[in-house]
Amino acid sequence: MDICALSPSQLTTDDLGAWSTFQRDNPLLASPYFCPEFTLAVDAVRNDVEVAVMREADKPVGFLPYQRTMWNRGRPVGGRLSDFQAMIAMPGLQFDPLQLVQACGLSSWSFDHLLTSQESFAPFVWREADSPYIDLTDGFDVYMARRHNGRSLLSEYGQRRRKLTREVGPLRFEAHVSDPAILAKCIEWKAQQYRRTKLPNLFAFRWVLELFDKLLTVRSDAFSAMVSVLYAGDRIASINISLRSRNVLHAWFPSYDVELAHYSPGTLLWFETMQAANSIGIQRIDLGKGPEKFKRRFQSGATSVAEGTVDLQPATALLRRAWHKTRDLIRSSPLSVPARAPAQLIYRCRSWLEYH
Predict the structure, then answer these.
(1) Which of 108, 116, 122, 168 could make an S-S bridge to 311, C-beta 3.0–4.6 Å?
(2) For the segment 329-354, what is each residue's pLDDT rounded down to a tens digit?
(3) Is 167 found in the same domain as 89?
């Protein structure tokens, strides 16, 4: 097996074709994050994106995109903007992650949303979590009929929809709009949300804004960005920025008008999206890892994802594992409250370093 690290611009047409084929033919890699277009878009706005290319008999058999950070540490492409990570490879490919990292000249490769189905990485996993999804293969009505809470969800949706229509204006759903003002409004609302929740403002980084602009210019059957909007009369009630790969939609940046929060405009937009899904060719909506309650209320199932690091230094790997285990113990103990402030400070500092 030959392994080399290349800039995305060095990938040949045959390389990109093989990457797309691996992604298209494997249902586990259906997410838009596994499309070469996502990596190429991030590479267009950053200068640290590389791809580990694995070849057998001079033919590409696997691709692992990453960003090279300080001290030759590898991170997922897009950092915290990436909700799924994996080796994009031909079926059944066996490889040694340590050999892979070493061949790329990295000291480590960290992941936080790695598909646990990729068993080669199992020895390097610290913890696992669920990433919920909505299965709309048989349409919205069948999806609701199969749910134990389907009747109550529909009743709640109907009440809120009628109330918003009556008090603000008739609802109108647009699956995708290309108006830059809509994108700007979503970014504005998300920045306000970050300030309210004291989380790092991703949109303070210029490359993130440039990435959004770049992604919205990519329109193909294999990959595209979608900006969905729910209007109440002439007023924008909520906006979802999502990524799409064929029949899979991945929720990325949902936002809403906080003055309309008591109408649950974000939930209403999800209902409208689910109802329209089959008509626009969507069979699955990935909601991403996270504790939000609406994900549990809507999910059909969940994809198992993992956090961990492939580290060439055994001592460093042991310290990392011990640190994360200690952090989990503190979070589940009475110390969680006093530890919250320093933990948030550390999180903000780490986020700044990762996004810079």
Answers:
(1) 108
(2) 666 667 555 645 554 555 455 555 55
(3) no
